[in-house]
Design goal:
Blueprint: E1 8-17, E2 20-27, E3 32-40, H1 45-60, E4 70-75, E5 80-86, H2 93-100, H3 105-124, E6 127-128, E7 137-139, E8 145-147, E9 154-155, H4 175-178, H5 190-206, H6 220-229, H7 241-250, H8 261-265, H9 268-271
Antiparallel strand pairs: 1-2, 2-3, 3-5, 4-5, 6-9, 7-8
Helix pairs in contact: 3-5, 5-7
The structure holds adenosine-5'-triphosphate and magnesium ion.
Enzyme class: transferase
Keywords: ATP-binding, Kinase, Nucleotide-binding, Phosphoprotein, Serine/threonine-protein kinase, Transferase
Pfam family, one: Pkinase
Length: about 280
């Protein structure tokens, strides 16, 4: 039978986000645990639009093992939308980095392979995530790694459709999104996900955001200049040549030169043997 909101009991708050709160909930009849994201969609139309986008994309991606699993949605009369999803008991990679520190290359390999599998699935289904960053990748104690938070994602209806509709900004955005005119003004957004993916892996390996020194306070103007006008950051010598090259393929400034998910899945780093895995 379909789960209704009355069947669920709130246990704890898992996180706050843009216009929403994520709760750990218990399905009373079965004691199964879920995550419930409640969005106050009565406040403004954009928040509501984001919630509806997230629902439609999660629905399309239910058979991908590296996308957080969708279990249903509810609309409350007072204008709240709620999204029921699988509970990821390990939290996000952002919290994992803060609590356990930098990722070893073996751990990074497992995380990279999972995110890349998820991205390959999304891109093959014409979905651009547009907000890949450590806080939007969730893990569980089974060792699974899944992409979450599809609030600003986009389903590309036309092959040459562009991604200008998303006007949000975050530090993981690619050079062509900050500065579209410098890249001929046309890009489709798939390559932008790869840039964000590369920066995410870089950050997990070195322990801090790539364009900033450890502990340096982010200054938006300096950051944007660095991304748009400097060479892409290069991984430290402590990384294997395969890993360094893999990141370099993700962080090509020119979007047309950046590798696709298909190319990256066949990169030597993805084929490397990790004895400890
Ligand atoms: P933001 O826009 O700030 O990224 P958001 O409103 O889009 O946030 P999410 O990123 O989906 O919300 O969730 C916010 C936080 O809640 C996550 O970073 C994570 O810590 C936690 N969270 C979300 N979904 C789950 C889940 N399924 N299982 C466990 N924790 C979750
Ligand atoms: Mg988020």
């Amino acid at each position: 039978d379909a789960i209704t909101i009355a069947d669920l009991e709130k246990l704890a708050i898992l996180g706050y986000g843009n216009g929403g709160t994520v709760y750990k909930v218990c399905h009373k009849a079965t004691s199964a645990t879920f995550a419930l994201k409640i969005i106050r969609s009565n406040i403004d139309i954009n928040t509501r639009r984001r919630a509806l986008t997230e629902i439609s994309i999660l629905r399309r991606a239910t058979d991908c093992p590296n996308v957080v699993r969708f279990h249903g949605c509810f609309e409350k009369p007072i204008g709240e939308l709620a999204i029921l999803m699988e509970y990821m008991d390990g939290g996000s990679l952002e919290t994992a980095l803060a609590t356990h520190g930098k990722f070893s290359e073996e751990k990074l390999f497992l995380v990279a392979r999972s995110i890349l599998n998820g991205l390959a699935y999304l891109h093959a289904h014409n979905i651009v995530h547009r907000d890949i960053k450590p806080g939007n990748i969730l893990v569980n104690t089974k060792g699974e790694v899944k992409i979450a938070d599809f609030g600003v994602s986009k389903l590309m209806n036309h092959t040459f459709e562009m991604c200008y509709s998303y006007v949000g900004t975050n530090a993981y955005m690619s050079p062509e999104r900050f500065n579209p005119d410098a890249y001929g003004g046309s890009y489709n957004g798939f390559a932008a996900d790869i840039w964000s993916f590369g920066l995410t892996l870089f950050e997990l390996f070195v322990g801090h955001f790539p364009f900033l020194e450890p502990g340096q306070r982010p200054n938006w103007a300096t950051l944007v200049c660095g991304i748009c006008f400097n060479d892409p950051p290069t991984m430290p010598e402590t990384a294997s040549p395969e890993l360094r090259n893999f990141i370099a393929c993700c962080l090509k400034k020119e979007p047309s030169e950046r590798w696709s998910t298909t190319q990256l899945l066949n990169h030597p780093f993805m084929c490397k043997d990790f004895i400890t895995c």
